[in-house]
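fold-stage: in
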Amino acid sequence: MAKRGRKNKAHINKQLWDRANSTDRSKWRSKSQKGYDFYLDEQLTMDEEKSLEESGMPSFTINRILPIIEIMKYFVTANSPRWKAVGATGDDTDIAQVHSDISDYCWHLSNGNSIYGQVVLDSLVKGVGYFLVDVDQDADHGKGEVVFSRVDPYDVFVDPASRDFLFRDASFIMVKKSLSKTQLKNLFPQHSAKINKTTSSEYSSNFSQRNVESSKIIQPEDISFSLDPKGEDDQIIAYYENYSKIKVPFVNAFISIPLTDEQEEQLQQSVQVQLQEFQAESEVQLQEKMLSIQQSLEAGEIIPERADLEIKKAQQMMETAIAEKQQELTSAAQEEMTRVEQVVMRKEEFDNMMKSEEFKKNVMDFVDFYETRIKLVCSVGDEVFLYEYELPITEYPIVPIPYLYTGTPYPMSAVMPLIGKQQEINKAHQIMVHNANLASNLRWLYEEGSVDEEEWEQYSSSPGALLKYRQGFQPPTPVLPAPINNAFYTITQEGKADAEYISGVPSAMMGFTQQQAETYRGLLANDEFGTRRLKSWMSTIVEPALEHLGKCFQMVSQKHYTIDKVFRIVQPQAGQEPDQDKEVRVNIPIFNDFGQAIGKWMDYESSRFDVRIVAGATLPLNRWALLEEYFRWFQAGLIDDIAMIAETDIRNKKQLVDRKSLYSQLQSQLEQMTEAIKDKEGTIETLERQLVQAGIKMKVNEAGTQMKKQVLDTEAQQKLLRSMMQGEVQMAKKDLAREVKTAVAEAKMDAKKDFDSNKEKE
């Protein structure tokens, strides 16, 4: 019966995939494949190539799509995405920062930048890209690591009824792959016996219209067989992963936790010890108070009656404090003995425990509720069930990034609107090249028998050739091709401009400009206005998808990293400074006096925080334009020179900043001394007036001499500081001038290289 149930689950997977692989998806798949083919320069069908060859026309293409897509990809993936975690309470703030470090650790462990680039490229050329948050159970010697990976969009089948652009409302998301038996056994060695017995009706479907036999690029659909390590044929079979959302019943119970006799005795002993310590401390304080009263009495500061009254009052205060402390400790002990905990458990587990009268009497109250869980069912072939389990998360671990969302699981790619213009450009160039071939290889009109045909075919196009024709016949005349219509040149230029307009990627973004911007502010303006469409896609699709990815990672990582673990994180530093290593530790056990673990410090699993994406973190930065802005802010007084230097790429800038800081300190000291001199000079003048009026001229002179000596000492210190500052300033100016000269020379050299490279391309 169990085997039949497992077989049915595998059959359901296969049946669900058959229904998901509908006509609508096949239509989307075919169009998406066509866009992908055009990106890979597979732009002519077999019939088109045959027709061109028969008419003697060239069959080359000029791929305008690939550079546009590559620039769009670079713009979106120039930097790594960054997530920040915000703690729900003050106690969660520290662990929230730790989560940000853990996400960086797992991202770099997974080679996240490369995966992110592949996912964005899928979105641009195929219509949608997919992230997968998973756990590599074998990593870290079996402890496991949370990893990011990419899923091929053509392997993903989404509930057609989904209307959310992140497919969060889908009833299922299925991943179907065509893998060899060897690959499957490497993935699931524990299921090798099942895999060996698997048979499949798997076949390779070609959804594109390209000529597979003569195609330039081999694509996955072209590979229909595999070889095992022995060199023998390895059968390709279907592998299914079916993710679905289910509602699981839970109970939120409030349970009184009674103490054991041993725990109760330990609690009472703890109360007695704390009370005795407080009583001893109170008695010492009373003795000190009585001694102080006795000393005051002997000194005659108070009368005996007051002394007796103060002593009696101190005794009463001690007795009151001891009684209050005893009441406080007793109340705390009572609360500990009648402690009520809030426990969340599955409904099935709760019902089983309620059968126990001992447990039932301790249940104060409970509330039924439902939580969403992700169920995963895996199978191979048509009828072989592998495994199933429930993921402890509420959202699908598969996160899509669509390009142009259509309200369905079938988004449109960035390539699709460009296909028509690409075909137009190809056709125009083919006609122009064909016309040039005809002009350079003339056709001849002649009377039959007037020439030696073999001789004319061999030498008619040779420079300086002497060609004979027979007497009595008219000499052959060349048949000149019709002049090419200027409209074809216009078509190619307008086609290029139209492609830029449709894609929203101007030539300036690709480094091809007719004239250079005069200022870096001009470059910033070009970047701002030329990338608004891409920024719109980033803000409305990409960044919300990345934020959802961060939340999925949070759920998976908090459920996985539940034991004591140390994360080693490499943090890159700006400029030429070396990277820094940082260690983060979570779930640190807390032990009692008996060596028993009673809790966890930096409890990662139970912490509550919200994960958000840092907007614009992945966008590229125009370093030189940004430096121009920083310099302008410095000139306007909005930032100081130290802040400006920190944003540059000047070598040894740390030493330069330290030197500038020293200069600032000396400047501050100089200003303070100047103010002190002014204060002392004012004091001298005031004393002179006062003493002259009192007729004490000698004292005026003495006071003045003393003040003037202090002034001279201060001025001497001031001169020394000025000398030190001048030396530091001169050194700083020389270093800065040298670094700036080097940076300008390197920038000019890079600009010349880019100019020469672009000129060669043109």
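fold-stage: in (second)
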Amino acid sequence: MNPLAQQLNETLQKESPNVYAMLSNLGKAIYFPKEGILSQSAEAKTKATKFNATIGIATEGGKPMHLKLIQDTLSAYNPKDIYEYAPPAGKPELRSAWRAKMFKDNPSLEGVSFGNPIVTNALTHGLSIVADLFADEGDAVVIPNKNWENYELTFGIRRGAEIVEYPLYNESMQFNSAALRDALLAQKGKGKAIVLLNFPNNPTGYTPGVRECEEIVAAIHDAAEAGIHVVAVTDDAYFGLFFEDSVQESLFSKLAALHPRVLAVKVDGATKEEYVWGFRVGFITFASESQATLAALEQKTLGIIRSTISSGPHPSQTFVLHALQSPEFEAQKAEKFDIMKGRANRVKSLLDSGRYGDTWEYYPFNSGYFMCLKLTTVTAEDVRQHLLNEYGIGTIALGQTDLRVAFSCIEEEYLEELFDTIHKAVTEVAAR
């Protein structure tokens, strides 16, 4: 094993032996090289005042070389903030700005010890880092039965982990914390579990209330007390889009110092929150009382980044930083929130109007981009195909009964027509 990896492992064994026990084989072996191209280039950047012939970019006139036709479309930005490589951990100013945003959005983080957010190439990349660091073949990844299909690819296919599902809703159509607890305690023989908490939930658009979240935290605490090492990951992709009386903060702050056998990891980003899907800017943040542990986890994360994408795109990091620093940011974001909330409320009023009879039920939703219909008489795939082929309407079929509708991309004035047409399609398919 590389001496740098060994040194990081020894730090974790000393400072946080439970965190060390959570690492995958890759997580134990990975490290960020201190001696090499990046470190020598960083040193030269501060000391090479005459010529800097280290890093693999081209310069011209003291600036990064670039094509005028590209720069003409980006004239508001200095070439050094666009064309140079961003550091593997991300643009330092962006990391600081996102950390400040985390405190503003999550007042409960005050007094909580957590690391500086590390920039990822959006949330999928952040989740894949979690998988690489902590998931070995056969490890349990605990998720609800209503989940984002990419979890299977990221943890199951890529890392060989076992996907353990539990029902998202209980009989009262609230979050099924009892089922989560059972799924976690069932991993006692393995001694380890990775739990993914995605609120607002994709695909249902559900976020639990305060009492439900207390039960979630208690379930994870019970698992830790039972001797299970729990990597508790908050997938906060749709964070902030809370339209009703649900929790308004990430569970990360409640999990951060919950138990020595719980490692809280926050995966979030500008992708959905700031409506910049193609920018691919996300973050991964670890919580620990030990600064040495946080430093070791950051170094291992940088090793994963360096060995996969090297570093994230610099232009989009600059764009997001510019937005976060703008005095117009909060007002413009609030404007978009109101639009999204209006769409969600309109969908709910249509579904509660009684006009669609018993054609379907719908899963509780109060946040995010989506909602799910539960079809009662026909299969979701048949309806999806009929909507697409006969009416030019796209939806997502999930399993036999569930049809996901993204109200996020439908103007409020067209939602009535959309759901009327879905109802018509269900009726037509049922009459075949």
